[in-house]
Design a protein that fits this description.
The complex is a heterodimer of chains A (about 250) and B (about 350).
Chain A lengths: L1 E11 L2 E13 L2 E6 L6 H9 L5 E6 L2 E2 L5 H7 E4 L11 H12 L4 H11 L15 H13 L5 E5 L7 H18 L2 E5 L3 H7 L2 E6 L2 E6 L1 H4 L2 H8 L1 E7 L5 E8 L2
Parallel strand pairs in A: 3-8, 3-9, 6-7, 7-8
Antiparallel strand pairs in A: 1-2, 1-4, 4-5, 9-10, 11-12
Helix pairs in contact in A: 3-4, 3-5, 4-5, 5-6
Chain B lengths: L1 H42 L7 H9 L6 H35 L12 H14 L9 H25 L5 H25 L2 H12 L7 H29 L2 H6 L4 H23 L5 H13 L3 H25 L8 H18 L6
Helix pairs in contact in B: 1-3, 1-12, 3-8, 3-10, 3-11, 3-12, 4-5, 4-6, 4-7, 4-10, 5-6, 5-10, 6-7, 8-10, 8-12, 11-12, 11-13, 12-13
The chains are: A alpha/beta (about 250), B mainly alpha (about 350).
Chain lengths: ~250, ~350
């Protein structure tokens, strides 16, 4: 299973957001991070993959044209997670996942929902109210809503924004684990370049709606690229555990 | 390990089913409470006819005098039932509005649907259409209905403008309320004494306009629309978790909104067209229901309808008891009772579950 993106364009009226994004086939079992400065079109690309934006170009999953799939079928195979669950919802954790499954019309909702919670190790929260959870716990519940539907592709829009360090790693760790165990493809917009470098198999760097670089973190993260895309003077160093670290020294004028 | 996991799953399933049961029971309890209130409402009135006599009269009409028959069939029953149906319609419309506009302040009253209906009705009263085949009172209802629908369409168009956020929609609703009220005042200023009285009475919102035709029509609208509301409820619950989330889970939110909008216009416009402006039931009803049964719209919609019916039934009862010998228009009562409740809700966003 792989996802291939060819000449993908998105425009809001006359304003072109994505200028023909083309990527090599993204294979199952990998975590792809979309990175780049604000306004680069990362979220728009993700939304286009999810079918939430009108787009041109081709999008193939296993060679099959995704845009030709029906609304419900596409949603079943490519699952999208928006930034945060809205606050103030009077719903229980398990209830919210069952509610999300019910629309898809699958059977045995309850056991699917519970299994998703168990996979993420948060089955203890099942009876809690969404409102009583921390931001990180809520994000794990949102992820459980996705996993319960057994999708092939996970599309995650800034899954770790506004989370503390513990939950940043827990959420990304849970995604990684699912990706490897179930041979899924995860595409995530990540703001934190160091988190992206340590978690992703492949980085896609976007700027002004175009792909600037694409490849393994070690190949992509170079001082020249960081200067060009982010406008910063930075060093890329390997820490004692072998992971890459981007150390930013100053903003370039 | 697997046995433990299965135990956990079974326990969670048990908790979940208990939650559903509790919510179902709460809805049933509301229905029971409504029945009691309606009986109380039926039993009170200026004529002092007792509940026993009234029930006897309903089931054995031959034992009644002519006056008693008029009191039962033309006054008490239509008033009491109208309160139930209008309350249910407004509150259900409010619940759907709050869901599709993602706005806790949305209701037919706060976003100007009631005011628009009042403007339409006032226009029809002050300047009759001159359509021979439609009775003047029906013309008022039709105009109120048309204006109410128009306002909902305007609201929907506003909410879909790019960059129109939560606040701007509420502000637009408030602007609608003010402009319609200003135009109604203008009509009142220009009206003759005779017309003026009708205009003022219409804007007050009163159950005194109840009759069996209107009751039948409103009951029909509710009976037809409620099943559609319930069918849309699972998708609506998902919509409450965010527009993008719902869409990415395969919900066609455009179609969902459009269908819901149609229901909202029919429900609120029919209710307002028949009894005039009745405030706060459509706003507060869904909030009270949400505190009771939570956000699952499969329970929230029926619970909202029941709470709305209960509120208006109680208001109807209060409207007879407030001033001895005078039936205060029920719109005044709901506003007086609703405002404090509304303020409390705004300042103390309750948590439930």
């Amino acid at each position: 299973m792989s996802l291939s993106i060819d000449h993908l364009c998105v425009a809001y009226g006359a304003r072109q957001i994505l200028h023909g994004v083309t990527l090599p086939a993204l294979p199952a079992g990998s975590l792809v991070a979309l990175v780049g400065p604000n306004g680069a079109g990362k979220s728009t690309l993700l939304r286009a993959l999810a079918g939430l934006e009108r787009m041109q170009g081709t999008l193939r999953l296993d060679g099959q044209d995704v845009t030709r799939l029906g609304f419900a079928e596409r949603a079943r195979r490519l699952a999208y997670m928006p930034q945060q669950l809205p606050p103030g919802l009077a719903l229980g954790v398990l209830e919210s996942i069952v509610a999300a499954l019910r629309v898809g019309g699958s059977d045995d909702l309850l056991s699917h929902a519970f299994e998703a919670l168990r996979q993420l190790g948060i089955e203890g929260l099942a009876e809690r109210s969404l409102d009583s959870l921390s931001g990180g716990q809520r994000q794990l519940v949102a992820l459980a809503q996705l996993l319960a539907r057994n999708p092939q592709v996970l599309l995650l829009d800034e899954p770790t924004s506004a989370l503390d360090l513990h939950y940043q790693l827990r959420v990304m760790g849970a995604v990684r684990e699912r990706v490897v165990a179930h041979r899924l493809l995860a595409v995530a917009v990540l703001h934190d370049i160091n988190l992206a470098a340590s978690q992703a198999d492949c980085l896609v760097v976007l700027r002004e709606g175009r792909v600037v670089a694409c490849g393994a973190p070690a190949d992509v993260l170079k001082p020249a690229m960081l200067a060009e895309v982010y406008g910063v003077e930075a060093r890329v160093e390997q820490c004692s555990q072998g992971r890459l670290q981007v150390l930013v020294d100053r903003a370039l004028a | 390990m697997t046995a433990l996991a299965q135990d956990g799953a079974a326990l969670a399933a048990w908790h979940y089913r208990r939650l559903l049961w509790r919510r179902g029971l709460l809805v049933a309890g509301l229905a029971l409470l409504l029945l009691v209130t309606v009986l109380g409402d039926l039993a009170s009135g200026a004529s002092g006819m007792s509940l026993g006599r009234l029930l006897q009269g309903i089931f054995e009409p031959t034992t009644l005098s002519a006056t008693e028959r008029v009191i039962i069939w033309n006054v008490r029953l239509p008033y009491a039932l109208m309160a139930v149906l209008v309350g249910a319609a407004l509150s259900l419309a409010g619940a759907e509005m709050q869901a599709i506009l993602d706005n806790p302040l949305a209701s037919p009253f706060t976003l100007g649907v009631s005011s628009s209906a009042a403007l339409g009705a006032s226009l029809a009263i002050a300047y009759p259409l001159g359509v021979a085949w439609l009775a003047p009172s029906a013309q008022v209802t039709v105009m109120a209905f048309a204006f109410a629908c128009l306002s909902v369409v305007l609201l929907q168009m506003m909410s879909r403008l790019r960059g129109a956020g939560l606040q701007s929609l509420v502000l637009f609703g408030i602007a609608l309320v003010f402009s319609c009220n200003a135009l109604v005042s203008l009509l009142q200023l220009l009206a003759t004494e005779d017309v003026l009285q009708q205009l003022v009475f219409w804007t007050l919102g009163s159950l005194a306009r109840a009759d069996w035709h209107k009751l039948g029509l409103l009951a029909l609208v509710l009976a037809v629309l409620l099943p559609f509301s319930l069918r849309a409820a699972p998708a609506m619950t998902l919509l409450r978790m965010g527009e993008d989330r719902a869409r990415s889970f395969g919900v066609d939110t455009r179609r969902l909104r459009l269908a819901s909008l149609l229901r909202i216009s029919l429900l609120s416009a029919t209710a307002v067209a028949f009894v005039g402006t009745i405030g706060f039931v459509g706003l507060v009803g869904p909030h009270i229901a949400r505190l009771l049964v939570g956000e699952d719209q499969r329970f929230l919609f029926p619970a909202s309808a029941l709470v709305g019916a209960l509120m208006l039934s109680l208001s109807s009862l209060a409207s007879k008891l407030l001033l001895p010998g005078v039936i205060v228009p029920v719109g005044i009562v709901t506003a007086l009772v609703g405002v404090p409740v509304f303020v409390v809700l705004v300042f103390r966003r309750g948590r439930s579950l």
